[in-house]
Structure formats: structure tokens, C-alpha cells
Design a protein that fits this description.
This protein is α+β, with helices and mostly antiparallel strands. It has 7 helices and 11 strands. A hairpin with a 5-residue loop joins strand 9 and strand 10.
């Protein structure tokens, strides 16, 4: 049995916002599958999932289209397109998800017909040196009941993106900002931790789950609160309905617990343990 994840990007030390740029373009949107019946199944699967779980709703997402390294290897440029949650459910989460893959050893080409929205996850270390985990509720669309890091997606709607009408450098910078601001927002909404208690988020890598080829970017941040204080904040979290329990583990316990995570989050744990200059 192979690994539950593939590491797509890993840096020897965390990357700050100044080290990330974005190339947002329709070139990185999903390519429709030539099989018309397979394409039609996207709507069918979405209707089935919505009937089973009416709390699911569609929204636009940034699609992962790979990355480029600067010549000095001190900066990365994320290639991002546009997709939505419905297409994610109908391709990556489809029972026929493997049929959407293309026969290529190149990761981007292999996944070009999948939605592959770029998720985000946060490794948050508390003042008493513990890592925050959440146990997902039964209401979520992916891996209910599993342990995960806080996270979700950076949202195009947060910065007014509805399509590809604007291709300016200013917009690319806004999207890069949203990559970092979006993960802070997810942590605050899911745990109740005030943003003022978190350090600046730093990108540590990207992993892709082997099952469903789901990509997720992982960030590290420190919290200036102890685990007991965070537990109190969690009871008032805006999105606490997405989880049933807040958990804390030390760094040594994290790898064992990561076996209970979806593959992309297991990959995030592996990336975290290999960072050399964590601050």
C-alpha cells in the first residue's frame, strides 16, 4: 500500500508572505473531460450529495495549477485558476474520481480534469507547546469524524473575484494576501482564537492526498494562549459546528495521530516535522 499523500512542495524553512507571488489565470482552470457522460455525472453527484446533506452549498474556490520557483529559490509563485465546490464534489470526491485523471507522471497534467481546489490547513502551536487538532463533525462534506488541522479554503469571494475579468498584478497580490489572511480567518472561525493572539502565518508546504488527489497548503503559526484558554474560546467559535471536539497533542504525538487524518493532512504533519528552522 502506497503513501496516503504526496508532498508537492516543501521548503527547508517557513515562507513569509513576501516570498509568495500568485499567477491567477484561466490557463489553470480545470479542463473538461472529453467523456460527456462523465462530465454530466458532476451535476448528478452534486444533486445526490445535496439531497443527503442539505447544509452543503456551492462556492467558488481557487484551483491549484502548480507553482514556479524563482532562480534563487527564495520565492515561489503559485499558479491558480478558478473552480467551485460543486465541481470538487463531482470530480475529486466522485466514486469515479480516478476516471478524471490523465495518464501522465506530471502532477499538474495528471490532475488537469479534476477540480482540485487548493485547501488550507494550519499547524498552530500553543503557548504550552501543543498542536491544535479538531475532530470533524458529521455535517462536513469531507471525511466526517476524522482528526484534522484547522483550515478550509481561501475564498475568491472574500476579495470580490467572480471570474477572470481582471488579470492585473494588483489582483495577484490581493490573492497572495488572501492565501495568508484566509488561513488566519479559518483558525479564528473554527477555534475561536482571536487573530490578535496568533503570530504571522508562514507557508511550510503543499501536499496532495493520494485518494481523490486533493491538494492542501499548510501554514505554521504560534498562538500566545495556553491550551486551557483556547478550550474556553472554542466554546464560542463561529464555526464550531464543523467539529465536535478540540484536541491538543505534543510534537512527538502528532505523527501517530496523523494516521487518523485524511491523507492531505497527514502530509501536512509530515511536512511540519521536517521543517529545520521552525520559529
Amino acid at each position: 500500500m502506497g503513501k496516503a499523500y504526496q508532498v508537492l512542495l516543501q521548503w527547508p524553512s517557513p515562507l513569509r508572505r513576501s516570498q509568495l507571488c500568485v499567477d491567477f489565470s484561466p490557463l489553470y482552470d480545470r479542463e473538461p473531460h472529453p467523456d460527456a457522460s462523465l462530465e454530466a455525472s458532476i451535476d448528478d453527484i452534486w444533486d445526490q450529495r445535496r439531497s443527503a446533506n442539505p447544509s452543503l452549498f456551492n462556492a467558488t474556490k481557487f484551483r491549484y495549477g502548480g507553482y514556479d520557483l524563482s532562480p534563487d529559490c527564495q520565492q515561489i509563485c503559485l499558479r491558480l485558476g478558478l473552480t467551485d465546490y460543486k465541481t470538487f464534489v463531482g470530480t475529486n470526491l466522485s466514486p469515479k474520481w480516478e476516471n478524471f485523471l490523465s495518464p501522465s507522471t506530471d502532477d499538474v497534467l495528471r490532475c488537469k480534469r479534476t477540480s482540485s481546489p487548493l485547501g488550507n490547513g494550519a499547524i498552530v502551536e500553543t503557548l504550552d507547546s501543543l498542536i491544535i487538532l479538531l475532530q470533524r463533525s458529521s455535517n462536513v462534506g469531507e471525511y466526517p469524524g476524522h482528526l484534522v488541522f484547522p483550515g478550509g479554503h481561501s475564498e475568491p469571494s472574500e476579495i470580490g473575484i467572480l471570474g477572470h475579468s481582471d488579470h492585473s498584478e494588483k489582483l495577484n497580490n490581493k490573492i497572495a494576501d488572501e492565501m495568508f489572511e484566509g488561513i488566519v480567518r479559518e483558525v479564528c472561525e473554527e477555534t475561536g482564537i482571536p487573530a490578535s493572539s496568533l503570530s504571522e502565518a508562514e507557508l511550510i508546504g503543499i501536499s496532495r492526498r493520494s485518494v481523490n488527489v486533493r491538494p492542501t497548503a499548510f501554514f505554521f503559526m504560534k498562538c500566545r494562549l495556553t491550551s486551557s484558554v483556547i478550550s474556553e474560546h472554542y466554546t464560542r467559535a463561529a464555526d464550531s459546528f464543523e467539529s465536535t471536539k478540540l484536541c491538543f497533542v505534543n510534537r512527538e504525538e502528532l505523527i501517530d495521530k496523523s494516521n487518523e487524518m485524511p491523507g492531505c493532512h497527514e502530509g501536512g504533519a509530515a511536512i511540519f516535522t521536517k521543517i529545520d528552522n521552525m520559529v
